[in-house]
Every structure is written in C-alpha cells, then in structure tokens.
Amino acid sequence: MRILPRLALATACFTAAAAFAQPARIEGEVRRIDTSADKVTIRHGPIADWDMPSMTMVFRVADRGMLQRVKVGDRVRFLAERGGGAMTITEIEKMP
Q: Which of 94, 85, 95, 89 lies closest to 34, judged by CA?
C-alpha cells in the first residue's frame, strides 16, 4: 500500500520537471553579448509559460554561431529552454 503514495509523488515530480523544461517563445532586446562565455544578456517581456515577469537576464546559447547573428540593440524573438540551472537559447532571429 505504500507504493501508491510514492508513485503519486514520482508522478508529481515528473510533471513538475516536464513543465519546468517547457520551451518558451520570447521577445526582447539584446543588451550585451559575451562571446567568450557563449552568453547573451536580453531585456525581455513577460514569459507567461514560465510565470516570469519582464526583466533583463543572461541566457546561454546552444550554438556559439547565434551570437554572430545579433548585435547589441537588436530586437529579437527566440526560443529558450530551462534546465540544469540555466536558461538556454536554442533558436534566435532578429525582428524587423
């Protein structure tokens, strides 16, 4: 009988982890680029999928080449994932 509470807890943890890892589409403005650390600082609007308000934060990039396609001041739309204690951009494009 003790298996059911453990199963419920495991299911809840898995569901929470899946929600945490959910990618989000985000729009913002590039504020800083750090090519030596593969990171970009972006001022973004609210991220509803993550229940996160507007702020300026640092993101890792999945591919260093992404940093070559943007410059400080660019308005961008990007896809980011949370995991391992970091936010990682997996796609990025300039907005007109």
A: 89
Continuous segment of H or E residues that includes residue 26? strand 24-34
CB 44, CB 57: distance < 8 Å: yes
| Tens digit of each residue's pLDDT, the chain (96 residues) | 555 565 555 555 544 444 456 899 999 999 999 999 999 999 999 999 899 999 999 999 999 999 999 999 999 999 999 988 889 999 999 999
Domains in the chain and their CATH numbers?
23-94 (2.40.50.320)
Closest CA to 72 of 43, 47, 36, 96: 43
